[in-house]
Amino acid sequence: MIQPQTLLNVADNSGARKLMCIRVIGAAGNQRYARIGDVIVAVIKDALPQMPLERSEVIRAVIVRTC
């Protein structure tokens, strides 16, 4: 389960490496935990150089995989 302040590894080629969850918005009802398929609001903590995404940018993300 993903909750606010959780650090996440990124699984796509957007240029971001690590995200920190700041809000769960796609969960059923008023839950504070995200599971696979839920939408979260996150801030980029680490990004690849020379990519369109930058550090400290706020984005929306979908949870697609957990370990």
UniProtKB/TrEMBL annotation:
Pfam family, one: Ribosomal_L14
Cellular compartments per GO CC: chloroplast; cytosolic large ribosomal subunit
GO BP: translation
GO molecular function annotation: large ribosomal subunit rRNA binding; structural constituent of ribosome
Annotated localization: Plastid, Chloroplast
Assembly and binders: Part of the 50S ribosomal subunit.
PANTHER family named in the record: 50S/60S RIBOSOMAL PROTEIN L14/L23, LARGE RIBOSOMAL SUBUNIT PROTEIN UL14M
Family: Belongs to the universal ribosomal protein uL14 family.
Function, in words: Binds to 23S rRNA.
Record-given protein name: 50S ribosomal protein L14, chloroplastic
Species of origin: Triticum turgidum (Poulard wheat)
Gene: rpl14
